[in-house]
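Extended Data, panel c. Modelled sequence:
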Amino acid sequence: MDNKNRFTIERSTLVLILIFSIIKLLIHLYTNAFAGYGIFRDELYYLSCATRPDFGYVDQPPFSIWILGLIRFIIGDSVVAIRLLPAILGAATVFVTGLMVKQMGGGKLAILIASLAVILAPIYFGMNTFYSMNSFDIFLWALAFYFILRIIQQDKKSLWIWFGVILGIGLLNKVSFLWFGFGFFAALLLTDKRRLLATSKPWMVAGIAFSLFLPFIIWNAAHNWAHVEFIQNAQMYKYAGITRWDFVSGILPIMNPAAALIWLSGLFFLFISKDGKQFRILGIIFIATFLILFISGKSKSEYLAPAFTVLFAAGGIALEKINQIKYWQWLKHLVIIPLIILGIVLTPLALPILPVKEYINYASTLGFGPTTAESKELAELPQFYADMHGWEDMAKNVSFVYQQIPENEKPFTFVYGRNYGQAGAMEYFSTKYDLPNAISSHNNFWFWVDTTKEVKNIIIIGGRLEDHLDSFIKVDSVFVHKTRYAMPYENNLTIFMCKKLKRSLSEIWVSIRHYE
């Protein structure tokens, strides 16, 4: 085959990968612009973090927050604006998965299968729906896998350097990227690539990654290892009800049950197939990650989701090779048709494309009740969707209470949110409604309070009057916040006006810190 023909094939392959990437992008752009629900609880908090750039936060490293601050500066903080990058990252994940297929020798059928598996995975739809570190995480795992493939086939120093940068950014985005690093070094030990450990390259990768991650380590050391306390509390309380069976059984639905044949074929290709032997290191990274999460005992299924892109790529190749066997061409239809049908059926459960009432009826018809991983009471919606409702109503109701305060007392009045969603909502909607400065003892909000300021009034959202009397001389029930579709614990909340602290704010603040 001459160079011209090779170029034509190369270009057509890249165009095919790009087409699938654009499909993924358009799905999310449509949802963001014409469907979707309101701003998500975590997005409110992340925006609050973005106004206070730092080298770390109680619940996460700073990379995604830095990027959000840049987005806010350039295009604003509307829901459409902040959800643009997750949509792009979702499309980029499809593109990199296609490149992985190409790098492992797969053709167009393999690209088709792998791309559809990524596009139609419910967990990827959900994660690319809102702004968080998770969209970056999924993309960076795929990119790291791709660079390992490149390194396997072209052992260039520049590729190792870029691989180290990816690992470092991955860690600076989400600490769980450590699992990838552990898996990679375990894979080196368990394969014939262990000879590389005698060279400087893997250690250079570790050094680059550590250097990029170091600011977050320093931040934690300076803040009494707040992130470590956060993780311990989350496992002890927030995710106390999660079991190993929950972790394993949850994998099938979040990845699309019809995709199981693809990723299982991917494992076959990487561990058993002669053609996939040279790429076995990728399969070991997946297995090592699975084992780390399984042994932990408190892992959510979604934690493993970023590792599946490489199995989709490998699985596409395995199924493409089977399709080349005489009388086995029917298998591709058995894979692709159920994948598309089930993917379409499950999409509204992960992507907010239906109006709320229609979604409730749709989910009920399918037999899917509301779900949560946090052992919380639910109403009509799963927690993921419920947390996109009620925030503006809350801000409006707090503003109504704030208007009743004499003008000379307003500078010394604060609103206390019992969690970062409430406090974040007060800050986000303060440009639309007249609201006092928000404070909270939840996660990073705890650090942001100036306890030396004079306080005359604190508006508290929710809780019990008798509990508030422990800290205030006078507590009045002023208003009851009601909204529709929000989480039950964010609905029917009494808004209290609290006056005259019994103790200094600094004394109170030390006792109510809450990392979870």
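The radius of gyration is 25 Å. This feature is highlighted in the accompanying rendering.
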